[in-house]
Design a protein that fits this description.
Layout (H helix, E strand, L loop, with lengths): L12 H17 L23 E9 L11 H17 L4 E11 L5 H18 L2 E9 L4 E9 L15 E5 L4 H12 L5 H11 L5 H9 L4 E5 L3 H12 L2 E4 L19 H7 L5 E6 L4 H7 L7 E8 L3 E3 L2 E2 L14
Parallel strand pairs: 2-3, 7-10
Antiparallel strand pairs: 1-4, 2-4, 5-8, 5-9, 6-8, 7-9, 10-11
């Protein structure tokens, strides 16, 4: 144990209080002086801006968005940043700074908080994001809220831009995060490299920042991240654009590791409604499709055409699709 630092394995949050916990947090992230900024320690952070800014926020709640029974505090710290970074990526931007609000029961063991900070530190280093402050509060269950700032060169890619005739495409593969959740919740016995890959997609998702910037450069007409399921997020994209779509399930890039879930959910169903993949769903002029596929080929995530933008109607394999029933709604999906 470091000199002067509390024993995190036995002491609780209540033992050190808010001020003591804030000191633990501050020593992990610094004060921003190397950037000419003021981070933790004041009522608000002072940031050096000057570019067009993006601002997003998301909250993760224990028992709904994560479960410490099968994920560590470190996983929660990573994921709390990743879901916000994915929103910035979906605009074609890059993340820069974040504030983090942590609410937790006073009986929470400090080791859980320290592990959570490990995940924040790791994620912040991975995506070059400064954690510049935040807040701490008591609660009946643990929750994490992140507000993130990003920048974008020129105009961001919005949801409202799809045009009839555009190709509908998605990065990477779909359904893996939902498959990982199925495995973590006891849906499989034992482990394997393929199962571990699925679990990693659930606990440690990878937002597509580089891919988002590339798609913006290539003229993507609309974009959204796949956080609540392809069917629901596609519905949101088409609704914002005032257009329809025609999608073919045979074209969906279903995560190949889902085949390891013997007797588990259908891969196409997970791809359409599972959520949390943090892939990017976009529309792009069909004339630029080959260029985009080349630009996003491995080692990037890859890029797959799954359908086309139409004048109206949401069609899946020629049948009307009720996308709002396929994905995750935080207030209705229980």
């Amino acid at each position: 144990m470091q000199r002067g630092r509390p024993d995190l394995s036995v002491r609780s949050v209540a033992d050190v209080g808010e001020a003591g916990l804030l000191e633990i947090v501050k020593e992990r992230f610094g004060n921003g002086s190397d950037h000419g900024e003021v981070w933790a320690g004041d009522d608000a952070a002072v940031l050096a801006t000057g570019e067009r800014s993006l601002l997003t926020t998301d909250v993760l709640v224990e028992g709904i968005d994560f479960d410490l029974a099968y994920g560590s505090g470190r996983d929660v710290g990573w994921k709390s940043l990743a879901v916000n970074i994915s929103d910035i990526a979906a605009m074609g931007g890059r993340p820069t700074r974040a504030v983090v609000t942590l609410a937790l029961p006073p009986t929470t063991v400090l080791g859980v908080v320290d592990s959570f900070l490990d995940g924040l530190v790791e994620g912040a280093a991975r995506w070059d994001v400064g954690i510049v402050g935040g807040d701490i509060s008591g609660a009946a269950q643990m929750s994490v809220s992140v507000a993130m700032l990003g920048t974008v060169d020129g105009d961001p890619v919005l949801r409202a831009g799809a045009r009839p005739g555009d190709a509908i495409c998605v990065t990477g593969s779909l359904g893996g995060a939902a498959g990982g959740l199925f495995a973590l919740q006891g849906g499989v016995t034992g482990s394997s490299p393929r199962i571990d890959e699925l679990v990693g997609r659930q606990l440690r998702p990878e937002p597509r920042v580089v891919e988002g910037a590339q798609l913006k450069r290539l003229g993507a007409t609309s974009m959204i991240d796949v956080s609540d399921g392809l069917g629901l997020d596609l519905t949101r994209l088409m609704t914002a654009s005032g257009t329809g779509c025609a999608i073919e399930t045979a074209m969906l890039p279903v995560d190949p590791n889902l085949g390891a879930l013997e007797g588990g959910p259908d891969g196409v169903e997970l791809a359409l409604g599972g959520g949390e993949d943090l892939e990017l769903l976009c529309t792009i002029d069909a004339s630029r499709l080959d260029e985009a596929m080349e630009a996003l080929a491995p080692p990037l995530a890859g890029f797959t055409r799954i359908g086309d933008v139409t004048e109206d109607g949401l069609m899946l394999d020629g049948v009307a699709m009720k996308g709002e029933e396929l994905g995750w709604d935080h207030l209705r999906s229980r």
